């Protein structure tokens, strides 16, 4: 049996249909290009009959994608098949994906047809689609709740008609792993012409088993896995492709198969899909969650620093992430503190680890998470400077006009002096206030992340803003909390400015020491 597993991505079809707002043609193209770059074999780009917008995006993407095969969905309806064929006509290689329900429940209560009628409709539609391409995939919708006899009957007919890929969807996420593998194994045993086609599975995650089901289907002989990036999709979502792909790579010893995926592109693709689809990735999500490679407990951090394999089954760099992340919290041990100090270039003799660790624990208890720049401040500047908030927001005012410009004025206390500045921008009130603050401090910073979350409910909710900025190739975090979200945004930036100021004091002090030594 072939040891290559074909990866079929339906982020732009099954994934997109679950979003609050549909994506523009440009956004879909951006995702498709990213999927192509990751080495996805087949990209299902849409359901062209569903809307003129969908037709247009399938058409546009078909012209641009060269290294992945394009695919579009169609019901067993002539106009659907024509729309799919026409929308993809400019593509160099394309597939038409036809589906029809085969479970008794769907046949009787949704389609009101008997099984012979279903077979006739399916065969008729496949013949129509073969006029456009010889690459036809057929999905027996709700296959996991279809009787085995009916599945075998229709599949044999479809393969004889020319279907190259037979998809077995677990449409409602009902199956459990050994049940799906039982179905696949039986198809291989009972359908005489089964070897002329590729068997695919398409699992939904209603019981949280989409990835497990997909893996057990591979073990039973399936050689195409359908899913979406980050698992987005109808209801609880689809199989998270990045999880299946990494399971195939990491457990090659058991599964004995491989994919064409460029693993180093996984993280980037996941981020692009999350941002464009406005679907945040839970921090504990396997493979791509922000905590997937972060270690928090002191014992784990110590183990990781001794040998990464102690607590890491995947190297972060293998999915395109740069480094292992140790969260500095009150649970961290000396090893983690020392790791960050080493990373910033300090020798053991530059500071006293016992004093630093004691100060670190106090700060961690107060602050929750501590960052590398906090360690530097603890190690090298005195208590007074360390606790000093050099910058403080004394006043702000913003004015925004719909579809127009935003103007902000700020008064910022810098040490003992108050400075006033204002700024006007077309990028909204937060940008205006950030620009005004920047005019005062002149720090060359770039905002990398801005996150707003509501704390509490209703009128009394507070807006918490978390930001991440880059300053001289280092990352600084800032948090602001206020009822007014503009104020919390401004406070988050002032928090960042104070963190940068402390590091400037550290640098001043270290330079002073260096000069003293050289004189
Ligand atoms: O979940 C499903 O059954 C589908 C089919 C169209 C393949 O999305
Ligand atoms: Zn689906």
UniProtKB/TrEMBL annotation:
Pfam families: HCS_D2 (PF22617), HMGL-like (PF00682), LeuA_dimer (PF08502). Keywords: Acyltransferase, Amino-acid biosynthesis, Branched-chain amino acid biosynthesis, Cytoplasm, Leucine biosynthesis, Manganese, Metal-binding, Plasmid, Transferase. It catalyses: 3-methyl-2-oxobutanoate + acetyl-CoA + H2O = (2S)-2-isopropylmalate + CoA + H(+). Pathway: Amino-acid biosynthesis; L-leucine biosynthesis; L-leucine from 3-methyl-2-oxobutanoate: step 1/4. InterPro entries: 2-IPM_HCS-like, 2-isopropylmalate_synth_dimer, AIPM/Hcit_synth_CS, Aldolase_TIM, LeuA/HCS_post-cat, LeuA_allosteric_dom_sf, LeuA_bact_synth, PYR_CT. It comes from the Bacteria. Catalyzes the condensation of the acetyl group of acetyl-CoA with 3-methyl-2-oxobutanoate (2-ketoisovalerate) to form 3-carboxy-3-hydroxy-4-methylpentanoate (2-isopropylmalate). Belongs to the alpha-IPM synthase/homocitrate synthase family. LeuA type 1 subfamily. This is 2-isopropylmalate synthase.
